[in-house]
Amino acid sequence: MTPAQKVYVARLVGLAVLGPDGESIGRVRDVVISMHLPGQQPRALGLAVELTTRRRIFVPMLRVTSIEPDAVTLTTGHVNLRKLSVRPNEALAVGQVLDSMVRTDDPDYPELHEVDLTVVDIAIERNRNRDWMVSRVAVRATRKGLRRRGDTLIIEWRHVVGMSRLELARVGQGVERALAQFEKMRPADVANALRELPNKRRNEIAAALDNERLADILQEMPTDDQSEVLASLKPERAGDVLEAMDPDDVADLVAELPASEAEALLSRMDPEESESVRRLLLHSPDTAGGVMTPEPLILTANATVSEALARIRDPDINSAAASMVFVVRPPTNTPTGKFLGAVHIQRLLREPPADLVGGILDAEMPRLHPEDSLETMTRFFATYNLVCAPVVDDAAHLLGAVAVDDLLDALLPRDWRENDDEGQTR
What we know:
By secondary structure, this protein is α+β, with helices and mostly antiparallel strands. 31% of the residues lie in helices and 23% in strands. The protein has four domains: 6-86, PRC-barrel domain (SH3 type barrels, Roll), CATH 2.30.30.240; 95-168, SH3 type barrels (Roll), CATH 2.30.30; 182-282, MgtE N-terminal domain-like (MgtE N-terminal fold, Alpha Horseshoe); 298-411, CBS-domain, CATH 3.10.580. The strands form three sheets. Strands 1, 2, 3, 4, 5, 6, 7, 8, 9, 10, 11, 12 and 13 form a 13-stranded mixed beta sheet that branches. A three-stranded mixed beta sheet has the order 14-15-16. The longest helix has 11 residues, at 271-281. 36% of the residues are buried. Residues 292-358, 361-422 form the CBS domain.
């Protein structure tokens, strides 16, 4: 099959990237294009390739040997693992350019000269110098004109007006294609992808996400990025997003802010929702009380095994927190009544559904104290082979639980999401 010499960038997304011997390197997630002065033909500089480790790297187009319907083949299987970074005179074709608004001065379509058009795709074509240049742009009219609404037109790049960095910075550019790209990605991967985008584009996408999805993504971002995204939202919506986040993640965020900014964020939340965050802030961030979540799975002794399993099946609960249910005397909101013990999910799966959890709980369950240090917690998890553990005060009240992922977050450097051990940006 003859390799393609012209291809539309939207069709590249998801294609496998292979080395010369067919070895898998990753998948195409975007195309980096140059965005110079008006009148200069944009050039496709390289591919944003996602490795199996979810890292996104830059692969120059000169490394591309062929583009087939199902794969992109490179000249070598050795690639630079430095993390993708988009420079000021560059843009991500799918993440930034598609869905943006342009106009045309094409003499073949005089009726569209004053009509806003939406970019739906970009064609890149290989020239004699082996450079991949933007040759055509697929657009769609945003309102009814002389043509039927929804018709897609292919226009030569030189007749497209407004496809520049300056225009991409204009308020109101669409985000539909970017949202579709992120739809099936894990929150941590979306967070990494958003950090590659300019602040304006990132904030536009954040505004278009629903509260729960945005909350999940924010929890995977560094504190500075979290603050900037929340500041871009309307105050009422920022409060809703904070309420959808885990209390311990909100506490980590506000603990890094000046007191006035922290209080401003907490004031946007419902008082009942912010109360658990304020309790966490009473503890040092490097203790069990500061690391714990105040919302573990809590039941009373007269709950049945089937009720416990139903709680564990909640898809909003991560696997570490779902490994254990904690049994207390009422009330069941933290800080609870007396802590009675816990039941591991493996024990629940072995018992009849109608049995009571009070009859199978481990009353001798090891427990953490709110003042326990990170080293104490690390030794605790290593000793007892647990992934979730209760935090109990001297009066035997259950205050919360520490999951192993919370501990790992606390043990890693605070800027671990921003640092790149495999190299600096290109």
